[in-house]
Amino acid sequence: MKLPDYARKLGIGYRTAWNMYKRGEIPGAYQLPSGTIIVPEEATTGLPDKVAIYARVSSGENKNTLDRQAKRLEEYCMARGYRISKVVKEVGSGIDDNRGKLEKLVTDKSYNRLVVEHKDRLTRFGFNYLKLLADEQGKTIEVVNEAGGDTDDLMADFIEIITSSCARLYGPGSSKRKTEKMVEQLKENNG
Protein backbone atom coordinates (compact mmCIF):
# COMPACT_ATOMS: atom_id res chain seq x y z
CA MET A 1 0.00 0.00 0.00
CA LYS A 2 1.09 3.59 -0.51
CA LEU A 3 2.28 5.68 2.40
CA PRO A 4 -0.85 7.91 2.49
CA ASP A 5 -3.03 4.78 2.80
CA TYR A 6 -0.79 3.51 5.60
CA ALA A 7 -1.16 6.85 7.41
CA ARG A 8 -4.96 6.73 7.10
CA LYS A 9 -5.05 3.17 8.41
CA LEU A 10 -3.05 4.24 11.46
CA GLY A 11 -5.10 7.39 11.94
CA ILE A 12 -2.03 9.63 11.66
CA GLY A 13 -1.07 12.44 9.33
CA TYR A 14 0.93 11.83 6.16
CA ARG A 15 3.85 13.91 7.45
CA THR A 16 4.07 11.77 10.60
CA ALA A 17 4.09 8.59 8.50
CA TRP A 18 6.77 10.09 6.23
CA ASN A 19 8.92 10.93 9.26
CA MET A 20 8.45 7.38 10.54
CA TYR A 21 9.62 6.05 7.16
CA LYS A 22 12.67 8.33 7.19
CA ARG A 23 13.60 7.12 10.68
CA GLY A 24 13.25 3.49 9.54
CA GLU A 25 10.28 2.78 11.82
CA ILE A 26 8.12 1.12 9.15
CA PRO A 27 9.42 -2.42 8.58
CA GLY A 28 9.79 -3.41 4.93
CA ALA A 29 8.84 0.00 3.51
CA TYR A 30 10.69 1.06 0.37
CA GLN A 31 10.70 3.89 -2.15
CA LEU A 32 10.09 3.41 -5.86
CA PRO A 33 12.21 5.32 -8.44
CA SER A 34 9.15 7.56 -8.94
CA GLY A 35 9.38 8.62 -5.29
CA THR A 36 6.29 6.71 -4.14
CA ILE A 37 6.79 5.02 -0.79
CA ILE A 38 5.34 1.50 -0.55
CA VAL A 39 4.45 -0.09 2.78
CA PRO A 40 3.85 -3.85 2.94
CA GLU A 41 0.52 -5.00 4.41
CA GLU A 42 2.41 -6.87 7.15
CA ALA A 43 3.49 -3.51 8.58
CA THR A 44 -0.09 -2.87 9.72
CA THR A 45 -0.59 -6.16 11.55
CA GLY A 46 -0.13 -6.05 15.29
CA LEU A 47 -0.88 -2.34 15.50
CA PRO A 48 -2.53 -1.22 18.73
CA ASP A 49 -6.30 -0.96 18.64
CA LYS A 50 -7.96 2.35 17.86
CA VAL A 51 -10.32 2.85 20.78
CA ALA A 52 -13.49 4.77 21.57
CA ILE A 53 -14.26 5.26 25.24
CA TYR A 54 -17.89 5.50 26.38
CA ALA A 55 -18.73 6.83 29.85
CA ARG A 56 -22.28 7.38 31.11
CA VAL A 57 -24.13 8.44 34.24
CA SER A 58 -27.89 8.59 34.78
CA SER A 59 -28.29 12.17 35.95
CA GLY A 60 -26.62 15.55 35.71
CA GLU A 61 -26.03 15.45 39.46
CA ASN A 62 -23.30 12.87 38.79
CA LYS A 63 -21.30 14.99 36.28
CA ASN A 64 -18.12 14.81 38.40
CA THR A 65 -18.52 11.02 38.53
CA LEU A 66 -18.77 11.03 34.74
CA ASP A 67 -15.45 12.85 34.39
CA ARG A 68 -13.73 10.49 36.84
CA GLN A 69 -15.16 7.46 35.00
CA ALA A 70 -13.81 8.75 31.66
CA LYS A 71 -10.40 9.48 33.23
CA ARG A 72 -10.15 5.94 34.65
CA LEU A 73 -10.94 4.51 31.22
CA GLU A 74 -8.34 6.74 29.55
CA GLU A 75 -5.69 5.56 32.01
CA TYR A 76 -6.72 1.93 31.44
CA CYS A 77 -6.44 2.31 27.66
CA MET A 78 -3.05 3.99 27.86
CA ALA A 79 -1.78 1.21 30.12
CA ARG A 80 -2.98 -1.35 27.52
CA GLY A 81 -1.23 0.53 24.71
CA TYR A 82 -4.46 1.45 22.90
CA ARG A 83 -4.66 4.53 20.69
CA ILE A 84 -7.61 6.54 21.98
CA SER A 85 -9.65 7.78 19.04
CA LYS A 86 -12.42 9.48 20.99
CA VAL A 87 -13.94 9.84 24.43
CA VAL A 88 -17.73 10.07 24.59
CA LYS A 89 -19.41 11.19 27.81
CA GLU A 90 -23.18 11.04 28.14
CA VAL A 91 -25.81 11.75 30.76
CA GLY A 92 -28.86 9.53 30.36
CA SER A 93 -30.64 6.47 31.61
CA GLY A 94 -29.17 3.07 30.85
CA ILE A 95 -32.59 1.83 29.74
CA ASP A 96 -33.13 4.73 27.32
CA ASP A 97 -32.59 3.44 23.79
CA ASN A 98 -32.57 6.95 22.31
CA ARG A 99 -29.25 8.26 23.60
CA GLY A 100 -27.93 10.45 20.78
CA LYS A 101 -24.22 10.20 21.57
CA LEU A 102 -24.37 6.41 21.86
CA GLU A 103 -26.29 6.16 18.58
CA LYS A 104 -23.58 8.15 16.78
CA LEU A 105 -20.85 6.09 18.44
CA VAL A 106 -22.38 2.75 17.43
CA THR A 107 -22.39 3.74 13.75
CA ASP A 108 -18.97 5.45 13.80
CA LYS A 109 -16.36 3.55 11.77
CA SER A 110 -13.28 5.39 13.05
CA TYR A 111 -12.48 2.89 15.83
CA ASN A 112 -12.29 -0.86 16.25
CA ARG A 113 -12.63 -1.28 20.03
CA LEU A 114 -15.22 0.24 22.37
CA VAL A 115 -14.17 0.39 26.02
CA VAL A 116 -16.69 0.79 28.85
CA GLU A 117 -16.22 0.50 32.60
CA HIS A 118 -19.25 -1.72 33.25
CA LYS A 119 -21.78 -3.36 30.91
CA ASP A 120 -24.53 -1.22 32.40
CA ARG A 121 -22.66 1.97 31.45
CA LEU A 122 -23.38 0.98 27.85
CA THR A 123 -26.90 -0.34 28.42
CA ARG A 124 -28.98 -1.91 31.19
CA PHE A 125 -30.71 -4.31 28.81
CA GLY A 126 -29.72 -5.74 25.45
CA PHE A 127 -25.94 -5.71 25.87
CA ASN A 128 -25.65 -8.89 23.79
CA TYR A 129 -27.46 -7.21 20.87
CA LEU A 130 -24.90 -4.41 20.90
CA LYS A 131 -22.12 -6.97 21.11
CA LEU A 132 -23.51 -8.83 18.08
CA LEU A 133 -23.72 -5.57 16.13
CA ALA A 134 -20.14 -4.70 17.07
CA ASP A 135 -18.94 -8.16 16.01
CA GLU A 136 -20.71 -7.70 12.68
CA GLN A 137 -18.88 -4.38 12.21
CA GLY A 138 -15.52 -5.97 13.06
CA LYS A 139 -15.38 -4.18 16.42
CA THR A 140 -14.81 -5.39 19.94
CA ILE A 141 -16.59 -4.23 23.08
CA GLU A 142 -14.28 -4.41 26.08
CA VAL A 143 -15.80 -4.25 29.55
CA VAL A 144 -13.14 -3.24 32.06
CA ASN A 145 -14.96 -4.31 35.23
CA GLU A 146 -17.46 -7.16 35.01
CA ALA A 147 -18.80 -6.41 38.52
CA GLY A 148 -22.08 -4.54 38.99
CA GLY A 149 -22.42 -0.78 38.67
CA ASP A 150 -23.65 2.10 40.81
CA THR A 151 -26.77 1.37 42.91
CA ASP A 152 -28.05 4.98 42.55
CA ASP A 153 -28.10 4.61 38.76
CA LEU A 154 -29.76 1.22 39.10
CA MET A 155 -32.47 2.71 41.34
CA ALA A 156 -33.11 5.55 38.85
CA ASP A 157 -33.45 2.99 36.03
CA PHE A 158 -35.77 0.86 38.18
CA ILE A 159 -38.04 3.87 38.80
CA GLU A 160 -38.09 4.61 35.07
CA ILE A 161 -39.12 1.01 34.33
CA ILE A 162 -41.95 1.20 36.86
CA THR A 163 -43.11 4.55 35.47
CA SER A 164 -43.08 3.20 31.91
CA SER A 165 -44.90 0.04 32.96
CA CYS A 166 -47.57 2.01 34.80
CA ALA A 167 -48.14 4.21 31.75
CA ARG A 168 -48.63 1.10 29.65
CA LEU A 169 -50.82 -0.54 32.29
CA TYR A 170 -53.12 2.42 32.86
CA GLY A 171 -53.04 3.80 29.33
CA PRO A 172 -54.11 0.92 27.07
CA GLY A 173 -57.77 1.91 27.07
CA SER A 174 -57.14 5.36 25.60
CA SER A 175 -54.53 3.94 23.23
CA LYS A 176 -57.00 1.34 22.00
CA ARG A 177 -59.68 4.02 21.47
CA LYS A 178 -57.23 6.18 19.48
CA THR A 179 -56.33 3.25 17.23
CA GLU A 180 -59.98 2.38 16.66
CA LYS A 181 -60.73 6.01 15.80
CA MET A 182 -57.87 6.12 13.30
CA VAL A 183 -59.10 2.91 11.63
CA GLU A 184 -62.62 4.38 11.34
CA GLN A 185 -61.25 7.58 9.74
CA LEU A 186 -59.19 5.57 7.26
CA LYS A 187 -62.25 3.50 6.30
CA GLU A 188 -64.33 6.66 5.82
CA ASN A 189 -61.64 8.32 3.67
CA ASN A 190 -61.09 5.24 1.50
CA GLY A 191 -64.68 4.05 1.40
Question: Any overview of this molecule?
Answer:
- The protein is 50% helix and 15% strand.
- The protein is an alpha/beta fold.
- It has 3 domains: 3-44, no CATH class; 50-149, 3-Layer(aba) Sandwich (Rossmann fold); 152-190.
- The strands form 2 sheets. The chain has a 4-stranded parallel sheet, sandwiched between helices. A two-stranded antiparallel sheet has the order 1-2.
- Helix 1 packs across helix 2 (14-22).
- The longest helix is centred in the last third of the chain and has 20 residues, at 151-170.
- The N and C termini lie far apart (65 Å).
Features:
about 190 residues, alpha/beta, Rossmann fold, 3 domains, four-stranded parallel beta sheet, two-stranded antiparallel ribbon, 8 helices, elongated
How would you briefly describe this protein structure?
With 191 residues, the protein is α/β, with parallel strands linked by helices. The chain has 8 helices and 6 strands, in the order ααβββαβαβααβαα.
Name the shape in a single word.
elongated
Oligomer: single chain
Order of helices and strands: HHEEEHEHEHHEHH
The number of distinct helices, counting runs of at least 4 residues, comes to 8
Number-wise, the strands total 6
With strands numbered from the N-terminus, the spatial order across the biggest sheet is 4-3-5-6
Helix content: 40-55%
Q: Architecture of the largest domain, according to CATH?
A: 3-Layer(aba) Sandwich
Q: What class, by secondary structure content?
A: alpha/beta
Would you identify the CATH H-level superfamily of the largest domain?
Resolvase, N-terminal catalytic domain
Task: Please state roughly what percent of the residues sit in beta strands, choosing from under 5%, 5-15%, 15-25%, 25-35%, 35-45% or over 45%.
Answer: 15-25%
Spatial extent as radius of gyration:
24 Å
The low-pLDDT segments are: none
* CA(first)-CA(last) distance: 65 Å
CATH class designation of the largest domain: Alpha Beta
